[in-house]
Recover the amino acids of this structure.
C-alpha cells in the first residue's frame, strides 16, 4: 500500500502575499481627454479657415480688364473692355468696373494686351496724334517702310511709288509726290510682314492718300526724330 503525502497547509490571511490590482480606467480617461483636445484644435482650425475665406472674398473687387489686343492711339470700344474680379492690391490701381462707360471712347496711350488690367495711366481723352486731322489707314508691305522702327508720333512722308510700267525718276529730275503725315498707330505684322499704319494728314489730303493706298502705291519714309 502506497504512502500518501501529507496535505500542505494553506496560508492564512496574514501570510498571503498581496497581489497588485490593475485597472484600465486611467488609460481610458487619458484617451478621452486627447480626443477632446483634438476636437478643440480642429474647431479652431476650421474657424480660422472660414474667417480667412470670408476676408478673402470681401477683399476682391471688380475692375476693368482688356478683352483683346488694342494698339496705341486707338479709341476703346465696348468690345475692347471686360470686367474682372481680382484681390485688392495697393500696388495696383486698375479702373473700377463702374468706370466702364467713361473708359469707352478714350484713346489708348500705349499698346494694350489681352488679359491685362486697364489702368488710368494707359488712357487719355486724346492722343495728340492727329486728333484734329484726317486719318487714313495705309497697308504697308514688307520693305515699304523702315522695319520695326515706326512708332506713334513719328513724322513720315507718304511717298507715291511708280505704277507698274512707269519709269523711275532720274536723279535731279522731278521728285515723287509725297504727303507729310504723323503715325497714329501701327498694327502687328501679319504672316507676310504687312502692317497697317494709321496716318494723320492735313485737311483735304486724306482722300488723296486713301486713293494711293488703295492702289498699293504708298511707301513711308520716316523723318529724323530730332526734328
Amino acid at each position: 500500500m502506497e504512502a500518501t503525502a501529507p496535505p500542505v497547509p494553506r496560508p492564512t490571511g496574514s501570510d498571503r502575499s498581496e497581489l497588485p490590482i490593475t485597472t484600465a480606467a486611467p488609460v481610458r480617461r487619458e484617451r478621452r481627454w486627447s480626443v477632446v483636445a483634438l476636437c478643440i484644435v480642429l474647431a479652431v482650425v476650421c474657424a480660422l479657415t472660414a474667417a480667412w475665406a470670408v476676408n478673402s472674398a470681401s477683399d476682391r473687387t471688380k475692375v476693368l480688364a482688356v478683352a483683346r489686343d488694342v494698339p496705341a492711339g486707338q479709341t476703346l470700344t465696348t468690345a475692347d473692355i471686360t470686367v474682372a474680379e481680382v484681390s485688392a492690391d495697393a500696388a495696383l490701381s486698375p479702373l473700377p468696373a463702374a468706370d466702364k462707360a467713361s473708359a469707352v471712347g478714350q484713346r489708348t496711350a500705349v499698346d494694350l494686351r489681352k488679359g491685362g488690367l486697364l489702368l488710368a495711366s494707359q488712357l487719355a481723352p486724346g492722343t495728340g496724334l492727329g486728333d484734329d486731322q484726317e486719318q487714313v489707314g495705309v497697308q504697308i508691305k514688307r520693305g515699304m517702310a523702315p522695319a520695326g522702327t515706326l512708332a506713334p508720333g513719328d513724322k513720315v512722308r507718304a511717298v507715291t511709288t511708280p505704277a507698274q510700267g512707269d519709269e523711275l525718276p532720274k536723279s535731279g529730275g522731278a521728285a515723287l509726290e509725297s504727303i507729310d503725315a504723323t503715325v497714329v498707330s501701327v498694327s502687328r505684322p501679319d504672316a507676310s510682314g504687312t502692317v497697317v499704319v494709321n496716318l494723320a494728314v492735313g485737311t483735304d489730303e486724306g482722300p488723296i492718300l486713301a486713293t494711293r493706298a488703295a492702289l498699293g502705291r504708298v511707301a513711308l519714309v520716316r523723318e529724323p526724330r530730332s526734328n
